[in-house]
Predict the structure.
Amino acid sequence: MADDAKPNPYFKNLNAKVAAMPMIFTTLVVFVGCSLWTVIYSFSASRSLPVNEFVGFAQYDRLFNTSRWNKSVENIAIYGVVSLCFSLVVGFVLAALMDQKIRFENTFRTIYLYPFALSFIVTGLVWQWILNPTLGLQKAVRDMGWESFSFDLISHRDTVIYALLIAGIWQGTGFVMALMLAGLRGVDDDIWKAARVDGIPKWKTYLFVVIPMMRGVFVTTLVIIASGIVRLYDLVVALTKGGPGIASEVPAKYVYDFMFERGNVGQALAASTVMLTTVLIILIPWVYLEYGQKKRV
Amino acid sequence: MTNEPFGPRPRRMLDPGRIILYSVLIVAAIYYLLPLYIMVMTSMKGMPEIRLGNIFSPPVEVTFEPWVKAWDTACTGLYCEGLKVGFWNSMQILIPSVIISIVIASVNGYALSFWRFRGSEVFFTILIFGSFIPYQVMLYPLVIITRELGIFGSLTGIIFIHTIFGMPILTLLFRNYFASLPMELFKAARVDGAGFWGIFLKILVPMSPPIFVVAIILQVTGIWNDFLFGVIFAGTKNFPMTVQLNNIVNSTQGVKEYNVNMAATILTGAVPLLIYFISGKLFVRGIAAGAVKG
Amino acid sequence: MKSIEIKDLALSFGDVKVLEHLDLDIQDGEFLVLLGASGCGKSTLLNCIAGLLDITDGQIFIKGKNVTWKEPKDRGIGMVFQSYALYPQMSVEGNLTFGLKNAGVPKAEIAERVARASEILQIEPLLKRKPSALSGGQRQRVAIGRALVRDVDVFLFDEPLSNLDAKLRAELRVEIKRLHHKLNNTMIYVTHDQIEALTLADRIAIMRGGKVLQLDSPHTIYNHPATKYVAGFIGSPGMNFLEGTLTVGDKPVFDCNGQQIDTSRYQFDKSTNGANRPIHFGIRPEHVVAGRDAAEQPFNTEIEVEVVEPMGSDTLVWSQMAGHEFRFRMDGQSTVSPGEKMPIGFDPVTASLFDAETEIRL
């Protein structure tokens, strides 16, 4: 090779490119390729195996006329809204309380966060036991003398979703608290001092100064929880198995059941495409926001 | 003079604000601890006691029978070999998955922070946003791919899947960490003649144990707690502990033995809990890593 | 009249004593600078005065009122922070008015105060903007404005210029001085920058290890530093120190490795009985005369030039004297080169002598 030959641009930085091969494979083949495949075949008439017979929106038509799917969507919507609001509010309040220079901060944090280390299966099974109508919490309270006490969420169609919520919130709020606490610790100490000199009460400082400052943390937390909610599956399998009837079915479980147990791949693909669309609807404004922010900095 | 304010502000021993503060924190702590307490209590009672007593009461007669049964002989559908099978399966899945995914992701992160090439940021962005795509969307094509590769329903298959899905968060973690190191270090090493692998192995890896620990915590808890991938890609023989636990507890045959179920649940939760209690703040750092943008 | 009075103040965090037995009186309208290296307790003291830190012992009076247990907002102070600490999601106007609205000040009066403050600080065109759209200098003006609208007697500045670049720092420094002339209220100003301290202060309190080492006018601090630490801390380049012994015969003579300096012109603070004590002899580089005029000085000798640092307006020359590093300033136009022999001289009256052991001025 002549010393002053221009190096071939494709071989420049070759080691880095070789090292990045797994990442390139994952992004191109799995994230982009597989998603595209799913979207394309959601328009096919696939039953137990994918086939190349394309039938337009027929699968979607059927999907949105299936009561199980509609119930799943309704459930995930309720679960999503309630758990988002609840975990954001409670997570922030807990974090704010933890930020008051309290004693045993580490102990409290450890307690609030440990459920997050557990599997959804574990969480689901524990709460299944606690919410067990014949032997669980309901019986314990009745034994204490409150005979008419009723806390039987799991076996009623209308309330089973709250059983999922109690378990889900138990597991996830500590995580939100940890993120919020990190956000609060990132607030400049001088801001607090300035507010004190100005005579602003603490709650007002939180509401009008600190929370607006933490917008980024809130948005990021929201996106993380929201994308976790869309995936909700294990918890349902462990806690209610979708029952009673179809009362606690969720989209992710619909996909799994149609894909692997009912041998209706076309339906499963259509359902997962709807899930993907939902995530994109959440994600795109966020990307836009992030991108916009980066430009400004 | 003596009556004048002097020294520190007087503090009432029981400031009402502080009382409310601690009360709220303690009530919340009880809510969080209760399930753990109930799990442990139930797992040490005999079945008659469970039927008669209530879930809060501590066992009158402490027994470890349920633990032994959960570990050794509990039935998952057809087989009655207990959770130990699932435990060892999970270990077999866990160890190679953690090692392979961390090796690949750390090299990725390194390439992305010090050796950017054209398009590297594009791939990285897709990788991060890809991590938000619901797994369900990619499941079927991945089944086809692993089947074509002949690794569907095997240990290799599930390790492959965990490596892929661990990549976004781990790459982000390593990229952010390496990017926080001084660029001068890297330049100095290049001037001294170190190459791509030399810089990584001799300079960066030795100075990054904390971030590797964070990555290990993240992966161990994540992979151990996985259910969906295990049930699809591992194959019946290799079902991880979470899948077996669910099969034991939610199996429809026979009388429900709640004490055995709770013992099994604790056993399954024990590994991540142990990691969590030992690692403390590093765990928080690990889970926050996903939230902190690069 | 005394504006601020601090009596026997102490602050400790557990076993760590940050401030100890501190007494300080500040006159009405005085500009006091707390100067010291980082960790000397100067910001801590300011936070105690503001009421942002709970003190362990002692009392604080502002305008004759005991405010030791008062909340910051009730002390009649305004404060400006190093990081500006503006409320980022509020407009400049919002930042100025937030505290007033909260305190229930009538709207008309708020408008009046904002108008006055923004006129003084020339931030009227910025009122509708968010802090993120302002430059560092503008942000700090707004931060000063926030203190100004509080209509208080005492202003506290916590290193307000440290985040700005050198040019802006010089500009705002003058502006703060002007502000002080205009408002004529008490200001306490914390900084680690001696130029800021010397230019702004009526009096400077030099702090170290939680104690005030010297509290004096900039002139006194510069010319008659009370301790060797103060002498070395103030002045740039720092004072030259020669270690040697002071012999008191018929006249006091300083001897350093054979180099004798007659110090009879030096005005001793203390009687110097007890002969042959080890001392440190300090002389500022700008008090040394070099070249032809050196011969006219009471003390003169010859040195060899080692390094020359031209700085434009003047030139700094590095050399050795009696085994000690010795720097002196020359006119910027003079041409000197390393290796050159050069006569130098100075008047011992400008020197500072310190006891070698206690480091206290003699």
